[in-house]
Amino acid sequence: MDLHFLGTSHGVPSADRYCQSILAQTAQGGILIDAGAPVMDLLLRMDYPLTSLRTVLLTHLHGDHTNGLLSLMDLSAWYFQTMSYDVWLPEEQILAPLEKLLSIVVDDTSYPTDRIRTHIVSEGVLQDDGVRITAFPTGHMRRHDRPAYGYLLEEDGKRVYISGDLAGGEADLPAFLTQEPVDLLVCECAHFPAQVLLERLEHVHAARIAVVHVYPLEKYDVLHAARPELLFPADGDVIRV
Question: Could you tell me the domains of the chain?
């Protein structure tokens, strides 16, 4: 499994980082986790075989994790017509407006829901067809009584957990990480002090830990000083698991 970091910034892009988006390339195809970056543009620039994309997972519906989704779905609806994939949305309220908007922008009332299939995320196993995908809730949007999720990807004995955004002040990583090993943990550090994350990581069983979505940027120095082995991927980086 190769993780391509398309976007690693926090809530806004910068001169050298797009917003959050990670492409996990597996033997079964591509799994996109979040679409804050201009995903379709980046896939084309990296000469990615678009028919390989099989699943899109959104952790939550904030714009810095979703703004590239419309372009991806629009272009694969009317132009790249060999693309076929599942889109997992964390809230049902987005489904009807999204499909209506797509029908308008592609100028066609028969939006191809047979090729671009939408589903609503719930806690537990979402797919298990060569790559097992399990959703774990986080408290990131708890104060608004809305859901957010992190995702565990498992393929051929390899396990990767991508945290999504976590609860403010808490870094509420799921309990299983303190009991079961993962090969790679990808975690954010924008919504709590760096020290809070460092304390949580003391109890996590992960062979490697990559930190993205960092704000303010001074946290990079704090985290690196405390844990020099941590990975800090930039846009365009690839981590092989």
Answer: 2-240 (3.60.15.10)
